Structure formats: structure tokens, C-alpha cells
Amino acid sequence: MNALVLKLFNLASFVYLIVTSVFIADFMRGSMEQVYVMPAPYAFSIWGLIYLLLLWLIMKSFFADEELDRVVQGIGLWFPISMILSGTSVVVSTTPSILFIALSLLTLCVVYTIIQGLGLPSSKYRVPFSIYLGWTSIATIVAAFVAIKGNGIEEILSIGELGWAVIMLTAGGLIALSFHFLQKDYLFPLVFVWGYVAIYLYQDSALIKFITGGFAALLLIVLVVNWFKTKAK
């Protein structure tokens, strides 16, 4: 695809994401507040940062240097598709929303993998996608629980909501930890710290507080220690 056309498509997809997420979306907060993995409302303000970073990347691409041109061409249509899927997930009903947000997560994984494979001299163009991918990962977990709750499902494989919340939050924390070591990425796990602290503050369950608080503390310790080790080299 022509580079200019691709950049314009990125911009159009971003506008769609903003319009659907900010002006059209109905987050159905009454239902969402009842799930064990729901973070405090302030946590969703991270979308503002994500939007700003995506806008910066898209606008800068029109005046791109060679490095950013490689990124834009490399990720191709995967990037705008992820924004379209993400925007659509907030305007459809609860059940299909999980499909759209999960597909958005998958496309972002592809985008991130492509960027990592480009062997760029710096990680600055990875930053928006690290944060976007991290928060979409948490949003997918939340959306799944909201969809299950909204359909009146109380147990899956004889495990109730609290049990699955423990499983998914533990899995998420381990993924964030592994992601840091495998990708040398500090921002992806920091997003999980942000989300898990918000869940800790919002939920009353002692078990949920133990898991989210424990992983948030563990991730912070690991990130700080590794950051100092890197600086010491």
C-alpha cells in the first residue's frame, strides 16, 4: 500500500477510535462495577495518555524520518485495524464487545511483534504500543468478566467468578513479569501495576486485594531493580 494512503488510513482509524470511545461509547458502568476484576474508575484515564501517544505517532509519521517510515510500513494495516476493532468494542453490546476487544488485542500483539523484529536503534516508537497493548490486555480481562456476568453465567467448569478472577489476575501478573524479561520492556508491566493498584483500591475481596497488591509490588520491585542494574552497566 502507498505510504501516504496508509498514513491517512491510520489517521482516519484514529479519528474513528476517538469518536466511538469519547463521544458514542456507553460503558454500562452499573454492570461493570459488579465484577471482581473491575479497576477504580480513575484507571480508565490511561486512555487519554494512549490517545495522545497514538496521535503523536500518527502525526509524526507525515513528517517521518527513515526509522518511523520503517515502523509504519512494517506494521501496515495491523495498526489501523486494531484501532477500528478497539473503537467498535465500546459501541456494540456487552457480549460481542469481548470479541472485538480480543481481536484488537491479537492485532496489537502482531504490531508489537513486528516492531520488535525491525531491530530499531531506539525503543521510542515502541512506547505507544507497549502502553496500548498493556491496557488492552487488562481491558480484555475486564470485558470477558462483564460479558459473562451480563449473560447470567455464574460458573464455568464448576469455578465461580471469584475463582476465575484469581486465575486471570494471576495469569496477567505472570504474563506482565515474563513480558518484561523477554522483551526488555518496562512500560507494559507498569501498565499492569497501574491497573492492579486500581483493582486493589476498588475491590473489597481480601483475596483479590492480596493478588493485585502482591503482583503490583512484585512488578515494581523487579522493574526498579532491573532499571538500576541497567544504569549501572
Automatic annotation (TrEMBL):
> What are the record keywords, sorted?
Membrane, Transmembrane, Transmembrane helix
Bilayer-crossing regions: 7-28, 40-59, 71-92, 98-120, 132-150, 162-179, 186-202, 208-228
Q: What is this protein called?
A: Uncharacterized protein
> Whose protein is this, by species?
Pontibacillus chungwhensis BH030062
Q: What is the lineage of its organism?
A: Bacteria, Bacillati, Bacillota, Bacilli, Bacillales
